[in-house]
Design a protein that fits this description.
6-stranded mixed beta sheet
Length: 491
């Protein structure tokens, strides 16, 4: 698989993907999709109307019943999902679509996004026959057990920051448990999800089991959530949108929801660590990866005052090498901001922090000579307080605020002083101190002496507080894609 490519030469699968066919109904308005790297037009997608949403959902329900996908032996689904994963790894068009209109540089998309999507599908394929019911001890003259059944149709709405990975997180457990799906990717990064669905059919997954519709959240997304044939909803995105989806689902059938929402994750560094240079690398990667456009980005550095200056110096050295580049060039490693509107929001928060008395240690400006592509410099901000927007609001950009503490209790209190609770990083060589921090920090995921996920898909991910409810990945995601029926039989 090559890496460098010319985006103008990429064949784009335009239209909704319903029942194994690309469709673009007349009368639906077109949404322009621009490339983040240079701001240029890439292609268009239709904004799904009521008839399109209904066709996708009802078609998915019928496909699940008629194809036998929901009733076949689980190992049959395993084999189909394995074939799908192999095609994902091999497909050059999938890689190019991911890189061309998203913020993911092609080399990183190949080594992480595509590889991770394939491995996600394999992981859930392996669980297909291992997520069933349970036998319960009861009196000798009776049999008590539960059965696990698919919901039928699961709706998923995915974000723009990691379009391929997020689609795989949703599709893997839903399809492995026998459900059909209708997925709405972000209108800003829609095309790799369509190609993913095309590859599913090529792998032998019946047409109509995985469908993709396009459109805005307020129109297509809202109609999808409200459709009476949708049994469950999974969403990754902002807390405001998550709350609206939860309300919509409750008002239209009391549907279960999985919500992975925003974050403002702390990186808590105690005085005694094993390797300060390694800590600096973890922190640097934790807020500059994908230019900070990551839900779990570690954008709040909380460091013991005795090592703060030395650590900050090492972080500055690390981020000095971040340079912008077109996402379709193999040499590029640093991501653009998704669009100018988001970039301006990031910069406005930085400017406001400076006006409120914070100090910009480095960054705080855009890279120049990048055309219409919005590349923001990695930014370090000190002299901040918890009432500043730059500290308490999710920035979704490469901006790290710096606060210091003098004792363990103060450090943990600063880490917990947020409405979010998605993730946290802890750095210490004191095992007991690390364990105390794990128990005390109010977050759904805590990493110790590292920052970020691994390829251990068995470990679930999800947030506390305003960062959401439910879990993606792991056995928890499989269970969330099934409804359980209790049975008691008298002999």
């Amino acid at each position: 698989m090559t890496t460098d490519f010319t985006p103008e030469n990429v064949p784009v699968p335009m239209g909704h993907y319903i029942g194994g066919t690309l469709v673009s109904p007349a009368g639906e308005r077109q949404i322009e999709v621009n490339r983040p790297s240079d701001g240029k037009f890439f292609a268009s997608v239709p904004d799904a109307g009521t008839d399109t949403v209904d066709s996708a959902v009802c078609g998915a329900l019928q496909a699940a019943k008629k194809s036998g996908w929901s009733t076949c032996a689980p190992r049959e689904r395993t084999r189909a999902l394995y074939r799908w994963a192999a095609l994902i790894e091999q497909d050059e068009l999938l890689l190019q679509l991911e890189a061309a209109c998203s913020t993911r540089p092609v080399t990183l998309a190949k080594s992480t996004d595509v590889a991770s999507a394939a491995e996600t599908i394999r992981f859930f394929a392996e669980l297909a026959d291992k997520a069933g019911g349970e036998h319960y001890a009861t009196r000798h003259s009776a049999l008590g057990f539960s059965t696990a059944e698919p919901y039928g149709v699961i709706a998923a709405i995915t974000p723009w920051n990691f379009p391929l990975s997020m689609a795989a997180w949703k599709c893997g457990p839903a399809l492995a448990t026998g459900n059909a799906m209708v997925i709405k990717p972000s209108e800003m990064t829609p095309f790799s999800t369509v190609r993913l669905a095309e590859l599913a059919v090529l792998a032998g997954i019946p047409p109509g089991i995985l469908n993709v519709i396009h459109g805005l959240g307020a129109t297509a997304g809202a109609q999808l959530v409200a459709h009476p044939a949708v049994g469950k909803v999974s969403f990754t995105g902002s807390p405001v949108t998550g709350a609206a989806i939860m309300t919509n689902a409750a008002n239209n059938g009391i549907k279960p929801v999985t919500l992975e929402l925003g974050g403002k994750s702390p990186q808590l560094v105690f005085e005694k660590v094993n390797d300060l240079a390694q800590v600096a690398r973890c922190i640097s990667d934790g807020f500059t990866g994908n230019a900070g456009q990551v839900c779990v980005a570690g954008t709040r550095l909380i460091v013991h005052k005795n090592i703060a200056n030395e650590l900050i110096g090492k972080i500055r050295q690390n981020i000095a090498g971040c340079q912008p580049g077109l996402t379709w060039n193999s040499a590029s490693r640093y991501s653009p901001i998704i669009n100018k509107t988001q970039a301006d929001k990031i910069h406005a928060l930085v400017v406001t922090a400076r006006e409120q008395g914070a100090e910009i240690l480095t960054g705080g400006t855009f890279f120049t000579e990048t055309g219409e592509g919005a590349f923001y410099r990695p930014t370090l901000i000190s002299g901040v307080s918890n009432d500043m927007d730059v500290v308490c609001k999710e920035i979704f950009g490469p901006v790290l605020t710096i606060q210091t503490f003098t004792d363990e209790e103060e450090g943990i209190a600063l880490a917990n002083d947020s409405v979010y609770g998605l993730a946290a990083g802890v750095y210490t060589r004191d095992f007991s101190q690390g364990m105390r921090a794990i128990k005390a920090i109010d977050a759904g995921t805590v990493w110790v002496n590292r920052y970020g996920r691994s390829q251990d898909f068995i470990i679930p991910t999800g947030g506390f507080k305003m960062s959401g409810i439910g879990k993606d990945l792991g056995r928890a995601a499989m269970e969330a894609c099934q409804r359980h029926k209790s049975v008691l039989i008298d002999f």
